[in-house]
Amino acid sequence: xxxxxxxxxxxxxxxxxxxxxxxxxxxxxxxxxxxxxxxxxxxxxxxxxxxxxxxxxxxxxxxxxxxxxxxxxxxxxxxxxxxxxxxxxxxxxxxxxxxxxxxxxxxxxxxxxxxxxxxxxxxxxxxxxxxxxxxxxxxxxxxxxxxxxxxxxxxxxxxxxxxxxxxxxxxxxxxxxxxxxxxxxxxxxxxxxxxxxxxxxxxxxxxxxxxxxxxxxxxxxxxxxxxxxxxxxxxxxxxxxxxxxxxxxxxxxxxxxxxxxxxxxxxxxxxxxxxxxxxxxxxxxxxxxxxxxxxxxxxxxxxxxxxxxxxxxxxxxxxxxxxxxxxxxxxxxxxxxxxxxxxxxxxxxxxxxxxxxxxxxxxxxxxxxxxxxxxxxxxxxxx
Length: 383
Description:
Helix content is 44%, strand content 19%. It has 383 residues and is α/β, with parallel strands linked by helices. It has a domain at 47-245 and 335-382: Rossmann fold (3-Layer(aba) Sandwich). The strands form 2 sheets. It has a 12-stranded mixed β-sheet, sandwiched between helices. Strands 8-11 form a two-stranded antiparallel sheet. Helix 2 (24-45) packs across helix 13 (349-382) and helix 7 (204-220) packs across helix 8. The protein is globular, with a radius of gyration of 22 Å.
């Protein structure tokens, strides 16, 4: 009995020693296999799975939910029909009638290449196509920063039963290390409990869907959230903040200081100003910088609530308008400006270089957070 006990102890010590000698990628690969073996029943019997759809070879990899007893192709067809039948989404869905189902497959297990699996949330139909210049620009920039990029379909949970919709959001939270909410239109004031006064270009169906996903992802805190412009505002609302619906008209600031409404495109609509940055993840991404010259393309701004789950870490240099937020749990960062603009759009090489540094910072931070989770799970398996 004593010999058997000593042998078991010796084997355990040997396993722990072997674990210490493994490289990070080896640990990640072993853990991925172990997690897969433990979770096979979940994959087989899950009522909602994630599929990857492409409508042509150059389009983004689009994430959709697949329901129980539904083929991947049928899941895409169901989604397209639901969008077509929804009058509100038809306004922003574009030429959906000619969309093809070129490729559909199950979302693979997260790879061990070291790239961070990232999901953008589409808020225009163009974000799901090869012709969408904005999404293509973001896919390229974040890929260069080390991310493995996907796009969650516009209102992907449309017409799902409540439990199926929640299961879909759960699968997103489980499978993606970084969720990115992009710029775009104003957000419906219904979502923060106020009447519409100066908001415009609203789409409540889209906004509700995105808010539910962002809020769930933030609350489960399995990955990192990053918001840009409208996405910064969406993250703020998910945390419990509200919005100033127009800077000038609410007496909060100067709209013209933050956007050129006479511009015809993103480049022409930019204005420029300084921001003051507090010690934060954002300042860390910028090597400790406490000031930055940034672009600006917005007429609304976050109205801070002290009880919300995030706090301001940067303000503009004129009216103390919130320019960046950080989650109180350190698992979300958002900025009101556009760090993703390359030089050909921003017209400012130094800003675009700083912007890419921020993007590399958030991708690296998501990678470190995921690695920490891997090690914690691995440690539990070998204890």
